[in-house]
Amino acid sequence: MHNGFQAKADTALAAEIRGVSFTYPGSEQPVLNEASLTIEKGSFTAIIGGNGCGKSTLCKLFNGLIPHYYSGDFAGEVVINGVSAQGKSVAALSRMVGYVYQDFDNQLVRPTVLDEACFAPLNYGLADYRERAQRALDLCGLAPLQHRYIWELSGGQKHLLALAGALPLEPDLLIVDEPVSQLDPSHARQVYEVLRQLNRDHGKTIIVIEHHTEFIADYCGDVCLMEQGRVLWKLPAGEALNRRHDLERLGIQPPEVTQAAARLRAMLEEGDAAHTHTHADAGYPITTGDAVKYFTGLLREHGGAGRDSKFAIQEAVSKPAGTIKAHGLAEQSKADGLPEQPQTVAQTIIRFNQTSLSYRTIRKTEHTVLHGIDLAIAEGERIALVGNNGAGKSSLLKLIAGIAKPSAGAVAVLGQDTRSTPIEQLSRQVAFVFQNPEDMFIEDNVRKEIAYCLKRRKYPDADTRVVHMLRSFRLEELQDRDARLLSGGQQRRVSLAIGAAVRPAVMLLDEPTANLDLATREELLSTLAELEQHVRTVIIATHDMQLVSRWATRVIVMHEGAVLADGTAADIFASPDLIRRAGLALTQSMELSDALGLRPACSSPAELAGRLYQSITGKETLAHAARPQLV
């Protein structure tokens, strides 16, 4: 443990955890095992680790939820602002510690956005509760929505509201569990900018539990790594994200630019001992800005730059004859260099025909969430459905699954009109894995959850499938646990196992990689590949641009309830205006490619390293080192 802890309370510390162990009821293994950690006042710390390592449990110590609310075997001591938390109520600690939970939906208790923001200060009897609430909503960009009902918000908007609800009490320590897991990239940046402002301008101590190391690199000062209930180390972000052995061993992906730099160095050293890395002692870059300087210096050092203002690595690649279709934005597409092209379609198994979806609000007004959708989805396609929060992605999936019925137009799935086909019949061929995993849980343990649908439909190989799913999603040790009591990442794995078990013809996944560590994400992709013999088409609604670039054969961009564009990932990411309008963001590999003049942009750290290696050495890339990982 690098930071250690002191025997006496240190008032320069926001919090201390001293040798804490905790075991949940019904479990033989402690989720925290003599964990110790110090958090300095005014710091911005990320807590990372694989799913189930104890991150969320550790953070529940700070506001007293453990041991005062969650029962179990507890030992050790927690100190907040120099005062022992022992004997302090959750209510008392909540004045000092704000918390945005992973299951933030359960944190929202009032009917409207403004009511929710007012709830905490009003309950503490603060006379200026409304002013505090308004400041919090302004900070989170929710002021225009203050009179909206909670159930009218998208998942991402609810997450922002949960953050706004924690701010009016002005806590010294703010904990956010998975701040970007259900947000589009632009709103994710907004959340982190709010947290940065609170940290820098207001001196708040910020703790985030985070899987996305690119956000950690850009915003956090310290990183704490956990494994099996222990804190392995706490280090400055630059040093922490260069501990690649520790990170990758625990299923945590270093920033893409860090991976690319490390891979390039290995290739140079293996290909030619003379091309060693002179910058290695300072560590690899972790942000895109640092990576531009790093690779610029490296290319100049090895003669990779010298023609014009861009590097010799820039390739004059003409854009293929329009592979993007822009719906309702023909003029904008031409301006972006995105000409239309009819798509080659195999057997169509899902068709939207001028489909709209509306519902009547509590105010008796009609609210339209999807407008005149025309889409043909073919067998064998791997489709990523992307767009900002509230764009209509989840609503589109619900129409395919028959959970929602069109208000106008029609949806046909495998030749069946969803308006007249019972949802029970559709569900035999269409599996929907929900955005909130707990919405799928009805039994009292994981094994029964996976087996439920298989048993009800009397699949002859139900037991074999259950065993296979438990193994595929690393759930064997959790099979007797109640899924509702698992961590967010573990719950996600259970929901994926439930959906995959029935081997549907069409699989719909709503934000499947949210809350997942790298190892589980790889298992998800591997499982999808394995199921291709059974699943004819997979559609994933996601904000995970790495998943999009690696997995999707087709990307459908949605905005304000309409299809904005439809094409390959490369073409979508090649249009800056489209990316901006849709609330998307380039991956680090793509950003760095653009900065270095690489055309077309690289989709992975492996491809980026390979292209740079070829520029520096003039040699073909080493096949085993430069080939992007296949799934």
Automatic annotation (TrEMBL):
GO MF terms held by the record: ATP binding; ATP hydrolysis activity; ATPase-coupled transmembrane transporter activity; cobalt ion transmembrane transporter activity
SMART domains: AAA (SM00382)
Protein name: Energy-coupling factor ABC transporter ATP-binding protein
InterPro entries: AAA+_ATPase, ABC_transporter-like_ATP-bd, ABC_transporter-like_CS, ABC_transpr_CbiO/EcfA_su, ECF_ABC_transporter_ATP-bd, P-loop_NTPase
GO cellular component, one term: ATP-binding cassette (ABC) transporter complex
Main location: membrane
Ranges of residues in domain ABC transporter: 17-253, 350-585
Native organism: Paenibacillus oralis
One Pfam family linked to the record: ABC_tran
Keyword entries, A-Z: ATP-binding, Cell membrane, Membrane, Nucleotide-binding, Translocase, Transport
PROSITE patterns, sorted: ABC_TRANSPORTER_1, ABC_TRANSPORTER_2
Membrane topology value: Peripheral membrane protein
Subcellular localization: Cell membrane
Family, similarity comment: Belongs to the ABC transporter superfamily.
